[in-house]
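Note to self: keep these together.
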Amino acid sequence: MEKWNVYVDYIMEQAEKLLAIDSPSGYCREVTDYLLAELGRLGVDARRTGKGGVLADLGGEDGENAMLLEAHCDTLGAMVTQIKADGRLKLTNIGGMQAANAEAENVRIITKENGVYEGTCQLTDASVHVNGNYGKTERTWDTMEVVIDENVRSREETEQLGIMPGDYVCFDPRTRVTASGYIKSRFLDDKLSAAILLGYARYIKEENISAKRRIYEHFTVYEEVGHGGAASVPQGVTEAWSVDMGCVGEGLSCTEHQVSICAKDSGGPYNYDVVSRMIRVAKREKIDFAVDVYPHYGSDVEATLRAGYDIRHGLIGPGVYASHGYERSHRDGAENTLRLIQAYLK
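Structure:
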């Protein structure tokens, strides 16, 4: 709808900016600095949590029946686990990063004190004209390595650069936005939804809206390793949603143009009353949506429940194809997600 264009444009711009900031789980200081600055520019009260996330207070009337929207700004990535004898790096993955999806990707190696080095994640012995088993080799983290873009040929020379086990390895997101409205990038999960929460915060402020319920937003930093939403739930919250990617794939009905409403994932069913109301609101407001069951998925808000919080829970998000790989979504999916949040809480 035309009236939402300004907010969707903003969401797409913010998604590109967030995607450009490296933030594998646990290495999120720069992206949360950005979120705090942007929320401050919007006039939103926000603070850094003890775990390193960002908690924003959008205001609202009923603080005893408050709503919490959760999106994560941490991504997949890797960490140096060994410097090999030839100076190349063996990795361990962070979150669900797949070795097969990492092959031939440019990376940045974040050292503790000596800055950032570039490199490429490759199959060990990656030259097809040399390695006769290139096509037969299974891609695992034991068969992959990082070739550093420095003149190093030994463990000692790599160590002299200041690289050591425990250093983060960040993968190039390769973000592109097409004229037809598609956004392609690594880590749309979940920076597109983090941008949607920024868009909703801007909408609340610019439209001078005081919601009937107090509304909080939590940008978490450990979702990809399972405990992002396990803390920092403000007093008075009775309902929480994960705003994360919606699954697109064989056997599911969602497309990249829709908002996905998840009825159940690998952690079990979401709150029946919440899901039912989402569907009613989407139908009433003519929001393009799909309801699906995700076979291999877990969310921030499930970590919130497992931490013992007595709340109702839900999961929505823009449809994203090729999850945990080179992902793709569309501005329509962002708009429909934003509109569902707005309509549910208006």
